[in-house]
Amino acid sequence: MKMYNSIKLKATYILLITLLISCKKDFIEIVPKGNLIASTADDYQLLLNNNTFYNYGIQSGWHIPMLLGDELAAEGLYFNSTQPIVRRSFKWEPVIYDPLVIGGDLREFLRNLYTCNSIINEVMGAEGNVPQKKSVYAQALVTRAWIYFQLINFYGKPYDAATAAQDPGFPLIIKDDINQNSFDRSTVKAVYDFIVKDLVTAIPDLPIQNGVRTRVSKAAGEGLLGKVYLFMGKNTDALTQLNAAMSTIASQTNGPRLYDYNIELAPGGSFLPIGNLGPAGPLTNINDYTESVLFKTFPNFNSASYGNIGMVIKPEVAALFGASDLRLKFYTNRNPNGSVNPGGRLRKYVRYSRFGLELPDVYMLLAECRAKLNDLPGAVAILEAFRKHRMPVIDSTVPSPISTNRSALLRFIFDERIREYAEEGYRWFDMRRQSVDPDFAGQVFTHRVYAVDGATETFTLDQPNRLVLRIPQPIIDANSGMPNNP
Fold first, then answer.
1. Cα–Cα dist 447/470, whole Å
2. What are phi and psi of 446, to 5 degrees?
């Protein structure tokens, strides 16, 4: 693959190293300054190959959401001496970052947003054939939409149709102009409408299959649009797009597929042997795209990069797994130093987490969507088709008292999401959705810290205030009048 630095540009980006705290420029100056001048469609296409679009760095991606999910508990022996942002996030404190810090997650999203805007605003005027230019334009639109879907789920309230037009969202940035002096927060509805518009515009010109799954395909656009619609409560529209994504995936050659853990964890399977870092596969191999519809990854906070931060899953979360569920092979009761957890609690072997659009996510979103629309047999069928890849087929059946009860089935689907994605950040997004969903009214979200002496300390999430992150203070300071979250 040609890399970004192979592009011959007439002008290059100049990276600013001066943060907002030392100047009075607007917050967009954390992205590269200057206008990109590329002469051909190939130049712009190569920009999308930049690995910053899919390999997110240390303390970026979903590092903070990974710590916010209520499936987690913490071992005090390690947790109490870990990084302040880990402790603040886990305790759901109002302020996570120090007053002069813009988190790495936001910085990387905004850098990539700047590049997307450059492509979107310029590629159709570049040299090259029209179909190629339209394809690059469409891929940049989907990438921008994906970025904004992260931003609105960090900094905006969960989508509630009754209040979304008034709830503060995130500034809509559509220019690649760092000289814009101020920004206003758009509403949650405006941001979601913006995301939908980008995706709807893009899908007709997306390639059925791209050269590598770090790049956007038609299935990625359709699947993301379905996910966005589901987050908006537009279940019928979501069903249409998720079904379209599954059909497009089925038409691809060497497209994403589900691993069958019954094979991969059997003697001679590709996930064996299980070493100190756990089974092989996507959680330890950064280059494994097998289940990725749109590949994006980040180093998980629980990886060796950070030592032991004390994260484990709650005992009641461990109890969600059946004894034959092969996903338990990805957990251990041992600490990274080899010592046994005194309470027998489990931590996940996870070095890399994927957060673009994963095929297991599409399956479970589709099952949820069908259940929401009262197609319980359809929801059960898609869920069981997924589960048979994670446990012996005989155990993959959804229990009959659950399969015929809409409320119980919805809860089972969300529990399945925890079984699949515990400790990887997905639960935070599901907590937000459940907080405004009548099917999950009255839920309370808690974390626990287990002390060495066996005592426990419980933290309860303050709803709805802590279901949104505060915008970093330097951004608020640089944009006079911009309100922050509570």
1. 20
2. -135, 155
- Nearest CA among 276, 262, 283 for reference residue 423: 283
Burial class (CB in 10 A: 0-12, 13-18, 19+), 267: exposed
**Could you give phi then psi for residue 366, rounded to 5 degrees?**
-65, -40
Q: Which pLDDT tens digits describe the chain residue by residue (486 residues)?
A: 333 333 333 322 322 222 322 333 445 444 444 445 678 999 999 999 999 999 998 778 898 999 999 999 999 999 999 989 999 999 999 999 988 888 888 999 999 999 999 999 999 999 999 999 999 999 999 999 999 999 999 999 999 999 999 999 999 999 876 555 568 999 999 999 999 999 999 999 999 998 889 999 999 999 999 999 999 999 999 999 999 999 999 999 999 999 999 999 999 999 999 988 899 999 999 999 999 999 999 988 776 555 678 999 999 999 999 999 999 999 999 988 888 998 999 999 998 999 999 999 999 999 999 999 999 999 999 999 999 999 999 999 999 999 999 999 999 999 999 999 999 999 999 999 999 999 999 999 999 999 999 899 999 999 999 999 999 999 998 888 899 999
Dig out the tokens for 81 from the structure.
């001496």
Q: Which residues contact 476 (CB under 8 A, 6 or more apart)?
A: 482, 484
Q: 63-98+154-260+355-478: what CATH class? A: mainly alpha
Rounded CA-CA distance 397/382 in Å is 11
> By the 8 A CB rule, do 366 and 242 touch?
yes
Q: Answer whether the bond into residue 299 is a cis peptide, omega within 30°.
A: no
Sign of CA dihedral 150, 152, 156, 157: negative
Residue 315, Cβ density class (10 Å: 0-12 exposed, 13-18 middle, ≥19 buried): middle
**Rounded to two decimals, what is the model's pTM?**
0.92
In contact, 108 and 60? CB cutoff 8 Å: yes
Give bridge partners of residue 83 from the DSSP assignment. none
Instruction: Return the closest-CA partner of residue 145 out of 194, 86, 218, 74.
Output: 194
What the block records as the tokens of 196 is: 């939908």
Q: How far apart are CA 152 and CA 170, in angstroms?
A: 6
